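Q: Can someone sanity-check these two? First one:
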Amino acid sequence: MSEEKAQQLMQQMQMLETYFADLSQRESTLYGVLREAVSAIASIKALSQKTNSEALVPIGMGTFVKTKISSSDKIVLNLGAGISLEKDSISAINYLEARIKEIEVAIQDTSAKKNDAATQLEQGKSQINQLIQAESQSK
């Protein structure tokens, strides 16, 4: 392998490492969203079982106001782009469960891409090691 070929391989490895890091970050973000959705479902179910409950409502900068929730008949869902929708508890849970399925598919896709990138990185490292061995034997 020529020096030019070795430099190309190193550049490819750097790009793959960046891609792998991006995929890892995306996977981490997706797991965070998944945990949040599961937690929201658990909270909605818990609120449905109690007629009066207390909660802390965030008002900013880590400050909360204690409040009483007298009814959990209607749940407000943030759909994104500044749009929110009011739904009953069952519909809200169904919506969140559908989102969970979408998130799980995205996690599987990201994980598969991450595994492919890891495989390519290992192959690249192997090629670099072979190149180093070939150079050391030719000297």
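And here is the second, same format, sequence then tokens:
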Amino acid sequence: MYQRDYILRMIEMLAQLIAGILKLIKTGDINQASHALENAYRFAFQHDSLKLRDLPEEKLIENLLKEFHYTNGHLEMLAELFYAEAELLRAEEKHTDSYLLYRKSLALYEYIDRESRSYSQDRQDKMLLIGDRLAKKA
């Protein structure tokens, strides 16, 4: 129970950080957004933060569950971070890298959606938004 409460608090705090990052991106403060994103990764995942971005897309969830022993709460935090980083890369016009992170984020959200016992409209909205971003590439 304590671990679940801790993860929920972490998700809430991370959501606030990400909202600030997205606001910085929207206002064009890319350097500050990039710095804040790095801090958010370190805040949420400490020593694993550098490894997470490099995980191959095709084995992302398998690696996160087996190698890192992450819960759905961890996966949700990572999905949020991947989404924020994809938005940052999109603002920097690094489209190939942004699409990769959008796909990773969407894969995590879809997994959580399948495995979760609770419905989340926010998650549904985020999956639709990411789907739209990916569709615009095609």
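A (reply): Looked at the second one. The CA atoms of residues 72 and 116 lie 8 Å apart. The chain has a mean pLDDT of 90.
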